[in-house]
Specification:
single chain, 19 helices, alpha/beta, nine-stranded mixed β-sheet, 18 strands, binds zinc ion
Amino acid sequence: LGEHAGLKQKGVRVSRRADVLVLHGHVFTMAGNGVGYVEDGAVAIVGDRIQEVGQSSQLAAEYEARKTLDASGKAVLPGLIDSHTHSPEALMRGVAQDVPDYMEKAMAPFVRAMTPELALAGTRLHVLEALKAGTTLFMDYCPPYAGWAEFYDQVGVRARLTPTINALATDTLADGTKVLYEFDEAAGERAIEAGLVFADRWQRAADGRITVMLGPQAPDMLPVDQLMRVREHAQKQDLMIHMHVAQGDREHRQMADRYGMRSIPFLDSIGYLDERLFGVHLTEATSSEVELMVNRGASMGLCSGAIGLIDGIVPPAAEYRRLGGAVGLGTDSATSNNSISMFNEMKLTALFNKLSHRDPRTMPAWEVLRMATAEGARAIGLGDTVGTLEQGKQADLIFVDLTSLNLTPMLEAPIRNIVPNLVYAGSGHEIDTVVVAGRVLVEGRRILTADEADVRREAQAAAEELCRSVLRDPRHSELALLEAMRAGLL
Ligand SMILES: [Zn+2]
């Protein structure tokens, strides 16, 4: 301090230390209500946090940095948040489209044949693919298996992991549209226990990069007493609940047959609707049910691409937001969505909502970009930690190369087209650099913390093994995909 005071008296700028200094970017802080644009912007990072955001001229003079990243010609944004996804399903990309019953006709056979080893190969593929497309926070939802959280830790991304809790026998999902599930209560108990053990181990692990939610898979997939116990555990351990809610016909039928109620009023009746709940899909939610969810403080996960492809439906996210509810965007999975790039998700969200409302003003580019960053963070309960580039927030940020042909021309002033181009013309392949918790994970489009070629080879072999295993079961000769192939269509 004494030394600094001395320098100040001599008229020399006080030098502050930064670990990483980002200079000359088109910085979008996403703070406030819009995109928070800073022309020729800079970000100073100390440890895992953002120390300061400002003009390059100012921060370059103030800071001495261990590493400087030149972001000239690049947009600098908070890392993108995928608020709902199932990473192991990356192995099933492209095998489950264009069918009337996604779960039964397309997905169930592959889920049956999944093993923990195959699941890990899927997760590894998913995480690297999404990281290269700018996803820094993964709300991953699957039965916990060895190596799942460890891989997130190793790569260095941020994850909010949800171990699936259900009381279903393995084959139940395939028949769910026809008969009332018989619950396997012992399986439910085991899943609750596994979820709690996982939460004990991983909540705030990896220097806080990994956190956990409890995941009752859907209101129809656990008996009511087990649902209530999960909720009590969530309260006791201050965990959020990540749950599929009102996600389709199957759930709707199950709830009507078992309780004579729809999912959302049922959840309200057992005390599930509050700030602790992150409810995903709401495919079948009515206006009054949306209002009830918002009024209770619950937030919503919107998976536009997946629900569009699986159901041909646009979930009521515009209404949710209009009522003041928080909505995060999710890819759901490579099986349901095929693309797990958040750029794809932002574009589909804007497009589908414009179509369904017959109004091009619905969900403008800046708004869906907020849903993938600041709003998404708020929806999943991490609004104080990530989602914007502001002092004190975690240093999770991405650089998008604005000199890519598909993002050209880049206009800054007096007309600025950067945000519309990112959302409507971006793909995710333009991501040049990714920083999470102050650590550079991708630089020059190359992943520094994992071997991409290895992961790709392993995923290819695992997917081929999964297919062989699916086809060994004679029940699967009727797969919709095989029928389309026999007809010469695929
Ligand atoms: Zn899901």
